Structures
1.
Amino acid sequence: MTDHVELFRSAIANQLGLSFDDGKLRMLGDVLTRRARGYRDEAAYLGRLGDSELAGLAEELTVGETYFFRNPDQFAAFSALVVPARRQARPGQSLRVLSAGCSSGEEPYSIAMALAGTHPPASVRAVDVNPAALRRAQAGRYTQWALRETPPEVERAWFRRDGRELVLDDRIRAAVQFERKNLVIEDPDLWRPESYDVVFCRNVLMYFAPEVARRVIERIERSLAPGGYLFLGHAESLRGLSTGFHLCHTHGTFYYQHREGTAVASPISQVPEAALPEPAFSAAPEIAPAPRVPRAQLAEVLELVQEERFTAALDALDALVALDDRDSPDRDRLLVRSAILAHGGRFAEAEEACRRVHAIDELDAGAHYVLALCCDGAGARAAAVDHHQTAVYLDPMFAMPRVHLGLLARRAGDRDSACRELRQALLLLPHEDTARLVLFGGGFTRDALIALCRAELARVGGER
């Protein structure tokens, strides 16, 4: 039976893209036993996994709970910045939007409502692998719970009550085209080059194995027009998946713009108090990676950093570069250099090193963290908060930005934010990679940082 469950898990991953860890094997075994009834045995069932059976599995294994205007900050950015930008890029042409993984329709219908009344009319294409969810979407009937984030004026404009249900206006229903599509499959019709101005693919990638997510993002990148935009779920990022997008941060949210056709990222609005959702921590969080400079070579540099001998640490790092006979340090060496420079108060040089890192990889969380230190050192608190928040978004397991966000909030008199960030830092610090902690901690040990967070919590009355 165990072998059959493993084969079942592999088939689901290959054909639906869904990734299940070992903790879900019992659940998958129950699904396999139930779905295999009527077949000779599980092996016979696994040999007959055709399209219709995959549709049934999609209904059973995908999460369909959503609601209208989920993550309203993203819809604010969409309406206020993205739509005007795309209208300007393609004047007089219809805006084309894809909702990839549309579930029961709340997302694409929210997009259609946000676009209602614009000229020329926009087209919204919505796709999902779950046929049951698509049937619910096309019916256009919802409970009040699905409208829990919908502004009252929007509800009055576009819904009418029918008993316990709310029925969507036919004009909004007609604005969305629903189709059953599998994002894992290379579909020439779905992924035509430069087909869309905006793609929403929210809370989908988190269920895919990394290699599957990478292929899906490659297709999205290909299908977006130059300068087009991509919205992911708040717990998702393109870090490690693609370098084809600029990261945008406006309206208290993060989203992406296709690099092709854009010289630089869209202007970043400083939203210093924007609250990011808290990551969900498991009992044993995944340890975030340290810089990839070999540990044996980096040991002396880190020892000097921990002793706060920053000039000597830079000399040791330069010696490593010379030893390797490299004319241009790679991204990781640049990142190490930027951190040491920032700890030594050489903020202009540190910022330049970070810019060089981001020229290689715009989604490097460590460089955003160091830029935050530079901004804080220059007295630019709002910019420091913005870069720390960006580092947290790109790497939710990164402890040091949480520490500094807590300290910045405490200095600003924001008790609630200080408590929230410091408590998150205390959850993360015990699991942080030692080398990364030494490098970015500027000489503070793990125990010292934990003690600092506890002392700051006590200072604002946030002890638990």
2.
Amino acid sequence: MLEFALVFPVVLLVLAGIADMGLLFNNYEVVTNAAREGARVAALPGWTEDEVEERVLQYASAGGLNQGNVSTAVNPDLLAIGGHNVQSVTVVVSYPYNYIVLGAVANIFQGEPLGAGVTLTAAATMRKELAAGL
């Protein structure tokens, strides 16, 4: 019983940390795929920034993220490929992640709050497609 009483809190902390990091990784994957989906819309001819943001928010919402915390930036760019400049677009998506267990544990040992946790940021770049006949 004594050994169980000593080891059980450590095992619970490890399991909670695994769950916390799993949720963080899940949110990062949703942010990464949302950036990719936004870049796919921005690669099409005639896109608007509102359409890109709407697609990112749709994907993030379907992945369980809070739409109010998702920020999106769309940046047209030029890529140098084989001596030619190709028009492209980069979509950057950011989302703040608040630790559930690890933040509280770190506060105990650090003595100062971690704040909001970390900001997950992902970017996707895609070549712009040309309209038919051009």
